[in-house]
Amino acid sequence: MQRISIHQFMILSAAILLGTTFMPVAQATAQTAGRDAWLAVMPAYSLAIPWGYMILYLAKNHPGLTLMQIAEKLLGKWPGKGINLMYAGITGYFAALLSSQLVDLFRRSILPLVPTTVFAGGILLLVVILAWSGVEVFARFAEIVFPLIALGLIFTTLFSIPRFEWGEFLPILENGWMPVVWGALPIVPFAMEYPLFLAGMLAFLPQGEGPRLKAGIWRAVLLVGLLDTAITLTQTMVFGPEETKRLNYGLLALGKMIEISKTIAGVESIFMLVWMGASTLKITGLFLGAIWGIEQVTGWKRKGWVYIGVGFLLLGINLNKPGGAALVLEIAWVDQYLILPLVAMGVPLLMVAEFWQRRRQRR
Amino acid sequence: MRKWFSLLLAFLMPFSMSGCWGKTEVEELGFIMAMGIDQGQSPDTYNITYQMGVPKKGGEGGGRSIDNLTLTVEAHSMRESMDKVYSVSSRRPFVGTVKVIVVGEKLARSGINPALDFFQRYYEFRRTAFLVISKGPAGQLLGVETRQDKLAGLSILGIIEQSKATSSFPVVRLGHYLTILADEILAPVIPIAYPLKSGEAGMMYKGKEGDVAEEIRLSGAGVLKGDRLKDILSEKETRGNMFLQNEVKQRFITAELEMGGKNSFASARILTTRTKWKLEPMDGKVGIHYTITGTWDGDELSGAQQRLSPSEWLNQYESKVNEAFTEVIQEECVAAIQKSRELQLDFIGIGKHIQQRDPRYWKMVKDDWENRLASFPVVVDVNLRPENEGTTIGPPTNPPGTGEE
User: Which member of A132, A257, A304 has the closest CB to residue B127?
Assistant: First the structure.
């Protein structure tokens, strides 16, 4: 079994948590939280910590097993398989939606005429190769790409300062905390997407490193929370709250506004490559989740044709998806009505089953 | 399996070598520098002016080697207008390079949002493009072949980029306008551009075509209610507004002096300036107190010829000159406040300050803010400080005892 280091675990966690959430985060939170949207980001992401800790707790009691294997062990074979099938379906479908989102990002910004098939095919080919190469290679890929993503976001924030409309973020908490709480709700699923990957990654984690793994989780959450908070605040400062609500993928608009002196402008196409890296990491993580789910349900272990088959399935879904607001809404729907309930209830359910089983064993 | 997979990859890779779909070579692009929008002749149409600068083949360097391709088309929509441009242009019109968007005064008075939707929505445009309102039709302004830059769009861009030195009009980008527009309090202001004939506004130049404008001037600003141009601020009101909004970077200032007799004045450059504000009780009500601080470098002193020693300059002149400059800025600010009250439009952003500092009070007054603005207490303090008096203490003087002093 391949193992990844603690550092790789932290980077992978951050990469999966972040994904391309920096694209919709400001618009999603600003709908309700308005100019206080940036305050809603960190609390929403912090929910990944207790859920991550619960999964690590289960892993500690069932060393070397994935959460899918633990589910079958704790809930029984068929209920466990049912949940795992649901997990594989949702994770795979979400990976397909995110690949559609990446295609949409390219087509709406710099390459409007390139056929969807080329983008989707290229990305999914890369995803299948990465996934087939194994978690360790995937982790090394993340170690190279994630710092570029973080730097890209920091660069965008810093070079947007000349465009700041100072005062747009004031007054803070004009309508109290409730709009912030409601504003955080649409992005709580962002935090819940992380356990989807962690569920399968458990089998690749170093054994007996519980405290360090926990530290890895909260560090990743802190890093991603800060990055998304910075992007949300930047968009609020540049566009104002009303424009932030209106702009689809405000980060792309920010990238187009960056001008360094008179000579450097139009750097958004360079950024697009970085955002593609972010999307690839997330899609690969979810693709692996879908594969692990299928493997657990069917018992097929590391079959190449399964990887290729799932890749084509995702491609098929991708090609039939519209772009724009329809896609954004569908992603939000899957996030809120499929991923959120599955993770928010599934992990505590396993915890209850674990406690109940231990109590029964003690008797 | 791995071998087959590698073969599949090797087969697929060459397909990516042909590059991007629908790519256009640089030589095939028509870089649009500026766009103008006016009301069309037919109902519900626009006259849209595209200004393309095409480098002359084999031409010498500099602005003179650019061919001015300016084209106005009448269309119902921006996209339809581009359709028409395609039909006559051998180059693909590329709007990603649009730096200046000029809106005709008539269209501005009837509302500019419908025309700007395209600029906000179409991905090629940048929100950093500058927005100006032309006095008269935008097409006419962009049709001015300026003596230096040839392209009106380039001239406007140059004037805007140099405006830091004079701060005589606000710099407004498309993105800024859209942000302000979404705000329920602040009324947008957009600078005004004029075609300038020789002899107008006290400026003379030798043109080549008689009574035709060959220069462009930016001065003052239009105030909008929502997206409709309501009124045009004078240069004095515009500068006052810019001071109150802390938008003045540097500027030139001239003030008449009481001492020194007739036609006595001093001029300076304002080097640094900063405006702070705070809400405070005034006559039992909430009011706003602006404090403007700044430093100046003396550039010119005109009046009675008098030889001055350093102490005479300091004791007799410097403080008087400082007071005169202070008074000029004070008057500009008061003029801006009066205009805001008269129009019942908060283009200065007083309401915005109240909202930021005292949101509870703002909630109480916001529904009636336009009416309350007229009597809302505003105090402006100007605290200038001389940085230096220039390279000399006194003006050039004739020798004493010659009877010419």
Answer: A257
Flag whether residue B357 sits within 8 Å of chain A, measured between CB atoms.
yes
H-type alpha helices, B16-173: 78-88, 105-110, 113-121, 138-142, 152-161
Mean pLDDT calculated for residue range A321-347: 93
Domains, chain A, in order of start with CATH, read 6-362 (1.20.1740.10)
CB contact under 8 A, A108 and B123: yes
Residue B189 · residue B347 · CB < 8 Å: yes
Q: How far is A169 from chain B (nearest CA, A)?
A: 9
A219-230: b or e for each residue (b if 16 or more CB lie within 10 Å)? ebbebbbbbbbb
Cβ pair B179:A109 closer than 8 A: no
Tokens in use for B295?
A: 């430093």
Work out the pLDDT band at A271, boundaries 50, 70, 90.
confident
Residue of B nearest to A172 (CA): B356
What is the b/e burial string over B4-41, where b = at least 16 CB atoms within 10 angstroms of the residue's CB?
A: eeeeeeeeeeeeeeeeeeeeeeeeebbbbbbbbbbbbe
Q: Which residues of B touch A253 (CB under 8 A)?
A: 127, 175
- The reply to whether residue A125 touches residue B178, judged by beta carbons under 8 angstroms, is no
Average pLDDT over residues A164-175: 89
Q: Identify the contact set of chain A against chain B, taking CB-CB distances under 8 A.
A: 108-109, 111-115, 118, 121-122, 125, 129, 132, 163, 165, 167-168, 170-171, 174, 238-243, 246, 252-253, 256-257, 259, 265-266, 304
Q: Residue A230 in contact with residue A45, Cβ under 8 Å?
A: no
Walk me through the domains of chain B, giving residue ranges and CATH numbers. Answer: 27-233 (no CATH), 234-405 (3.30.300.210)
Taking the C-alpha atoms of residue A155 and residue A160, their distance in angstroms, rounded to an integer, is 8
| pLDDT reported for residue B355 | 93
∠ CA A262-A264-A268, nearest 5°, is: 135
Across the interface, of A108, A114, A266, the residue whose CB is closest to B21 is A114
At B5 the pLDDT is 73
Q: Which residue in chain B is spatially nearest to A252 when comparing CA positions?
A: B123
Contact A103, A120 (CB under 8 A): yes
Chain A nearest C-alpha distance from B56 (Å): 22
In the predicted model, what is the mean pLDDT of chain A? Answer: 92
| Mean pLDDT, contiguous 10-residue spans, chain B (405 residues) | 76 66 77 94 93 71 67 94 90 90 96 93 92 96 88 94 92 94 91 92 82 91 96 96 94 88 88 95 91 94 79 86 95 97 95 92 91 93 92 82 70
CA distance B127 to B124: 10
Return the amino acid letter for B356. Q
Closest B-chain CA to A245: B182
Give the distance, in angstroms, between the CA of residue A238 and the centroid of all CA atoms in the same chain.
25
Residue of chain A with shortest Cα separation from B173: A163
* Count of beta carbons in the 10 Å neighbourhood of residue B391: 7
